[in-house]
Amino acid sequence: MTVSRSLAQWRWWTGLPFDGDGDIDVPGALVPVHCDTSRDQAVYVEPNVWIRHDVTPCYAPADDEHSTSGTVVAAEDA
Q1: Residue 77 phi/psi, 5° resolution?
Q2: How far apart are CA 30 and CA 36, in angstroms?
Q3: How far is C-alpha 54 from the geometric centre of its chain's CA atoms?
Q4: Is 74 helix (H, G, I), strand (E, B) or coil?
Q5: What is the pTM of this model?
Q6: Disulfide: which of 1, 3, 13, 25 matches 46 by Cβ 3.0-4.6 Å?
Q7: Which residues are 22's β-sheet partners?
């Protein structure tokens, strides 16, 4: 996620001065906001991390002990 706004907007949102160039630590943000006073702009680029989980299906026991059918469920639910 990227948020690029004027310094006035960032000042209003955060209550911070945004009066110098460079990275500004903003409470609650995952990464610093980069401030560029010559452009009257600050940019926040939040990292986006995707994690892939392999899910191995397993079979839940059937309702009837003599039944051969079962329901496929995620391994975490079994």
Answers
A1: -90, -15
A2: 19
A3: 20
A4: strand
A5: 0.61
A6: 1
A7: 35
- Secondary structure, 3-state, the chain: CEEEEEHHHHHHHHCCCCCCCEEECCCCCCCCEEEEHHHCEEEEECCCCCCCCCCCEEEECCCCCCCCCCEEEEHHHC
CA–CA separation, 4 and 12 (whole Å): 14
Q: Which of 76, 41, 32, 44 is nearest to 58 (CA)?
A: 76
Q: Would you give per-residue pLDDT tens digits along the chain (78 residues)? A: 899 999 999 999 999 999 999 999 999 999 999 999 999 999 999 988 788 888 877 766 666 555 555 555 555 544
Phi, psi (deg, nearest 5) at residue 16: -95, 155
